[in-house]
Amino acid sequence: MFDKILIANRGEIAARVITTARRMGLKTVAVHSDADAEAVHVRLADEAVRIGPAPVGESYLRAEAFIDAAKRTGAGAIHPGYGFLSENPDFVEAVEAAGLVFVGPPASAIRAMGLKDAAKARMEEAGVPVVPGYHGEGQDAAMLAAEAERIGYPVLIKARAGGGGKGMRLVERAEDFADALEGAQAEGKASFGDAAVLVEKYVTSPRHVEIQVFADSHGNVVHLFERDCSLQRRHQKVIEESPAPGMPEHVRAAMGAAAVEAARAIGYVGAGTIEFIADGSEGLREDGFWFMEMNTRLQVEHPVTEAITGLDLVEWQIRVARGETLPLRQEELRIDGHAVEARLYAEDAERGFLPATGRLERLRFPEAACFERGALRVDAGVTEGDAITPHYDPMIAKVIAHGATRAEALSRLVAALEATQVGGTVTNLGFLARLLRHEGFAAGEVDTGLIGRDLDTLTAKAEMPEHVPVLAALAAAGLDHPPEGDGPWDRLRGFRHWGASEVHVVLEHEGEPLEVALRRDGPGHWHRAGTQIGVSRDTRGLEVTVSGRRFRAEAVRHGNRVTVWDAGRAFTFAIPDPLAVADAAGTGGDAIAAPMPGLVKRMRAEAGQAVEKGQPLAILEAMKMEHTLTAPRDGVVAEVLASEGSQVSDGDLLLTLEPQDE
């Protein structure tokens, strides 16, 4: 028995484990690299231990650092999370040799499933259906090419020690086999230190369906139904859901039984996932699925299983590690509704999904209170102000929606993503929203090639709605929130006796200049000059009116940039200094007016004072910067109309000069 647990991981999974452990009354220990010293999981844990510099090889892959940290803090167990050392049998043995409990399967089970060729041979012996192919030890290129011919094209070359799509090549013609083999072997060697491959028949309408299994040390094994992870990009999962669309009950039973048998065959203990490839060309059927591999750990997508079963899989892991029996029998498990998960990443979908970095100047998710109880869940390992660094996976969060039906779950997930705001880095939010609205996906017509077939449409550049620059201009000019005061004079901000106030704001969007003229219709009401696009400001924020349609929107200024969020898409604008040229600040002639709303920080002139052209007369603080207003010509100050500390609107007169002689 143990009462303190160390989590040998980082990010959202570390935070996830800590949350459950603390609910169970366990003390928790976090580990962190230098880059994660102030991370969410560190702040959540009862204790935290530094394990090294930012690179994973010097921190999160150091087994001895985890064991030493556990001993120093008195932790009796280590939870590996997923990734890093979670499927390393040597790590398991080192943990146990140190007298600690490993919250996961035994090393023997991990080894049995560690190499794809050996795992498939083991599954064949256990009677689990396996994809037709070559899974032998021989690696001669000519022999492998002959095996591919025997299997029949198209074939898939896979690194036997691979994962995450690395060391994998689809080959559709015999003449392409040699180059594909060389590439798969090189990638397998570089990624896993093993160049050996296997060759399998490629299923032309493949669906990735996996079964969640759980086993205890008393011989009990159950499955917790299936997850469909067919929406993938380059063999990386993007959207996961449970149950699988179109899954007949008899096929679910057959697949679940095969998964349970696979776990029994290797003496499995704990949480694991049996991954199957299914032929979706004629619907899911009992003779149309085959074993691919087993993940001997908790999966990233485990929340969808928790949503439909009402169970906490991390709690089950801890109970099994304590030696307890499984809490439920197979016949006691039920499916409740449907759940879908989307992985929110800092990546640029328009540029080939390049990973992105940046500080999260804004990170806001919709309030769970806005949804039915249990309908929305967000698992995040970062908060607003944290940095996405190049050292680790750029996942920001997992957003999970649950509903009574698949359509309801999808609708809720789209709504949640469109209400999510991320500022400071580019994300895949827009891509995810388009994918969830994809006609084929919405109809349940899913397979692993869907994203690739429609990639251009799914990653097309988003057109900027016409109301977005108006919101950006309001935020840039500081007009997107009420004035600090609430007296009658504050409400007259921007008022003029001789006509409506107009603000001219210059922005830059993707390197192109953009000028927006905002015309004031009354307190808190503006529209873009020459258009019917209006914006009203109240205590709840901004309301946009376009062609009679009214909706809420939000724009936020951070430094010299403004971000506007619209239906899950982020549009960013730069704010150039409008007073970069000093003498452009004045209105010319005999008057010096404020070019934008701001605070008179300093007044450097008084009535009767002689001034020269270009001489500083006032300093205006606006857009979080100081701007110097200068004399437009030589002359004498006739009148000072504003005092230091006063708030002025654009166009308000600050000083006038005495008229020039004829």
From TrEMBL:
Membrane-spanning parts: none
Coiled-coil regions listed: none
Positions of the Lipoyl-binding domain: 581-658
PROSITE patterns to which the protein is assigned, alphabetical: ATP_GRASP, BC, BIOTIN, BIOTINYL_LIPOYL, CPSASE_2
Entry keywords, A to Z: ATP-binding, Biotin, Ligase, Nucleotide-binding, Transit peptide
Cofactor(s) this protein cannot do without: biotin
Domain of life from the UniProt record: Bacteria
Gene Ontology molecular function, alphabetical: ATP binding; ligase activity; metal ion binding
ATP-grasp domain: residues covered: 120-322
Domain Biotin carboxylation: 1-456
Pfam families named in the record: Biotin_carb_C, Biotin_carb_N, Biotin_lipoyl, BT_MCC_alpha, CPSase_L_D2
InterPro entries: ATP-grasp, BC-like_N, Biotin_BS, Biotin_carboxylase_complex, Biotin_carboxylation_dom, Biotin_COase_C, Biotin_lipoyl, CPAse_ATP-bd
Name the record gives this protein: 3-methylcrotonyl-CoA carboxylase alpha subunit
Organism: Limimaricola soesokkakensis
The organism's taxonomic lineage, starting at the top: Bacteria, Pseudomonadati, Pseudomonadota, Alphaproteobacteria, Rhodobacterales
